[in-house]
């Protein structure tokens, strides 16, 4: 069984299934197509499937020409029919793992994917979970569902692995294939097969001794970011009171060639990973009577940041005898980070909401996000459109996300006061870093 699938992989005859054709699934699909494999994309969103078949991209950094090339190979198909998964030799799962309203892991996407695949599991297939999740998910959630409906046994009849995704959309230095990939599994054969598959598209795979170790590795990476961002956010508040510019401090500190890594403050955490993933561990740790104090504290500080920015804005307006109630605001950047069109968990919406609660009139500018799609937390902003800048005049411009292509100096000229949370514009009388 192992030899069969290894042979198919090495001869590029294995068919790869990718479940969840989003920010993670689509770049993976592209890599496997480029490596010469047949790929079947599986998604529950028919709109995405239709668009893919017409080579229309829904992710900014994957352009339509790339999809055209993918379709032209004749080796790509997309469907919402999970019975076709039985035609695949390896199936990679990259569906969402958000938090519920009570901030607990929302496993519903992984569970429903496993249930959709389970009736079609066949001997010799490989399943690799990539969704970020708590240690134990692969063995406690995925395997039992796949086993129960198929009457087959994981690691005996089919292979299972966990390989965390490290995608950083639009990163100019690293892409899917050049980011080393951790792979963990609970049997030697599963690990061997999973590594063989990823070795065809990734520069280096790093084996670890279990799926839980691989799951924990991903969480550690994101907790590390969350905690360090919280630290500089806290230092920003303290240094600001002392009249010290945190940005200048970080620039100076990062000249130390060892033992320091720069993290930058901002208006709060955003994206599908950093604000969410650490709490997957918090939830699981409770089972072991452990508390995750670093995670909680970092969450508290980072969640406070939008309130801090609004508080600083109020103070600076007060200095200038301006009133927030009725003032015209321009939020610059609604994507959660620069140079991407991803709005998930973006702190810009919290800022928007807080400003409106205080009576401000808010517009936004973001060339990456011309229209706000429906979001779970802020449905009230659905359909709002990015303004054109030519004729606008604003009381306050609040720079929340600083895309490289945006001329922030020009934007600063449009407003009486600029609140800069990203160090995007040089010091000036009307510019305040917050
Ligand atoms: N976006 C990133 O940069 C990134 C980086 C590292 C890890 N991750 C992790 O990867 C996973 C996927 O994230 P993403 O950003 O690609 O999400 P996404 O929302 O962009 O894509 C997920 C896709 O899964 C589909 N889907 C939902 N339920 C499904 C089901 N039951 N069956 C089939 N398809 C289903 C959705 O329609 C969507 O197309 C998450 O666990 C995330 O934490 C994401």
Provide structural commentary:
This protein has 434 residues and is α/β, with parallel strands linked by helices. It has 2 domains: 2-209, Rossmann fold (3-Layer(aba) Sandwich), CATH 3.40.50.720; 234-433, NAD(P)-binding Rossmann-like Domain (Rossmann fold), CATH 3.40.50. The chain is 38% helix and 14% strand. The chain has 13 helices and 13 strands. An 8-stranded mixed beta sheet has the order 3-2-1-4-5-6-7-8, sandwiched between helices. Strand 7 (181-185), helix 7 and strand 8 form a beta-alpha-beta unit. The longest helix has 32 residues, at 211-242. It starts with a helix and ends with a strand. The relative contact order is 0.08. The mean pLDDT is 96. The structure holds nicotinamide-adenine-dinucleotide.
What is this entry, summarized?
The protein is α/β, with parallel strands linked by helices and 434 residues long. It contains 13 helices and 13 strands.
Any chance you could write out the topology, listing elements then pairs?
Layout: H1 2-10, E1 15-19, H2 25-34, E2 38-42, H3 46-53, H4 64-72, E3 76-79, E4 90-93, H5 108-117, E5 126-129, H6 137-150, E6 159-162, E7 181-185, H7 188-199, E8 205-208, H8 211-242, H9 246-253, H10 278-286, H11 293-319, E9 328-332, H12 347-357, E10 361-365, E11 394-399, H13 408-412, E12 415-420, E13 431-433
Parallel strand pairs: 1-2, 1-4, 2-3, 4-5, 5-6, 7-8, 9-10, 9-11, 11-12, 12-13
Antiparallel strand pairs: 6-7
Helix pairs in contact: 1-7, 5-6, 8-11, 11-12
This protein binds nicotinamide-adenine-dinucleotide.
List keywords for this structure.
Rossmann fold; binds nicotinamide-adenine-dinucleotide; 434 residues; eight-stranded mixed β-sheet; 13 helices; 2 domains; alpha/beta; single chain; five-stranded parallel β-sheet
